[in-house]
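Whiteboard transcription, Tuesday session. T.W. wrote the C-alpha cells on the left side:
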C-alpha cells in the first residue's frame, strides 16, 4: 500500500460528506452529554483542510501533515482542534524521510494517537474518541506485521472503529463536560468517537475504491 498526498483532497471531501450527512445525529449525541458544539468544530476543521487541499497535494507527507496540524490547531475550537492538531503534528514528525507505506502508516498513526493520549491525558475506556482511535492503531500495527492486503486492512479497521464507537455507549466519562454527568452519561455514544468512526470509514472507502 502506498498513498500519495494528492489523495488528501478526496479524503477530506469524503470525511466532510459523511459528517454533514450525520450532523443531526452527532449534534444530538453531543447535546445529550457534551457542549453541543462538537460537530461544528469538526466541520470547521474539515473546511480549513479543504482550503489547504490544493497546496497539500504538492507536498510530501511530513510537510502536508505539519501544515494540516498547525492549521487545525490554530483555527478550530474545543478539544477537537487541539487533539487533531496534535495528531497530525505527531504523524508529521514520524513521517520524516518516509513514504506512506502500510508499515509507516501504522507507526505514524500510532505516534499520533499516543500524542493525543498525552495531550488529552486520556486512555482507552474513558468515553472519548480514543476508544475508536486506539483500537484502529492496534489493527494497523497488526496489519503491518502480517502484511495484510488493502481490502482486509480497510475491513478490519472499520470493524475496530465501529466496535470502539459502540463501546462508548456503556462507559462512564471521566473527561470534559460529560464527566460531570457521571452515571447519567451511560447509555449514550460519545460524539467524538462517532465522528472519528465516520471519518475513518469514509477515508477507508476512498482507499478501497482507488484499489478497486
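and on the right, the sequence the group agreed on:
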Amino acid at each position: 500500500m502506498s498513498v500519495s498526498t494528492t489523495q488528501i483532497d478526496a479524503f477530506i471531501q469524503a470525511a466532510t460528506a459523511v459528517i454533514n450527512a450525520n450532523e443531526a445525529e452527532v449534534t444530538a449525541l453531543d447535546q445529550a452529554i457534551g457542549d453541543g458544539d462538537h460537530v461544528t468544530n469538526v466541520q470547521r476543521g474539515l473546511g480549513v483542510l479543504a482550503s489547504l487541499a490544493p497546496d497539500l497535494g504538492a507536498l510530501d507527507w511530513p510537510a502536508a501533515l505539519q501544515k494540516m496540524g498547525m492549521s487545525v490547531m490554530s483555527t478550530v475550537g474545543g478539544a477537537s482542534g487541539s487533539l487533531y492538531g496534535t495528531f497530525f503534528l505527531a504523524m508529521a514528525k514520524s513521517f520524516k524521510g518516509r513514504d506512506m507505506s502500510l508499515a509507516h502508516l501504522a507507526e505514524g498513526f500510532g505516534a499520533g494517537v499516543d500524542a493525543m493520549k498525552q495531550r488529552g491525558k486520556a486512555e482507552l475506556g474513558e468515553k472519548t474518541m480514543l476508544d475508536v482511535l486506539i483500537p484502529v492503531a492496534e489493527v494497523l500495527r497488526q496489519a503491518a506485521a502480517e502484511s495484510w492486503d488493502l481490502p482486509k486492512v480497510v475491513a478490519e479497521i472499520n470493524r475496530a472503529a465501529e466496535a470502539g464507537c459502540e463501546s462508548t455507549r456503556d462507559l462512564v466519562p471521566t473527561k470534559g463536560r460529560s464527566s460531570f454527568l457521571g452515571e447519567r452519561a451511560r447509555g449514550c455514544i460519545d460524539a467524538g468517537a462517532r465522528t472519528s468512526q465516520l471519518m475513518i470509514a469514509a477515508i477507508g472507502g476512498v482507499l478501497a475504491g482507488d484499489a478497486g
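Someone added at the bottom: The first helix runs from residue 8 to 21.
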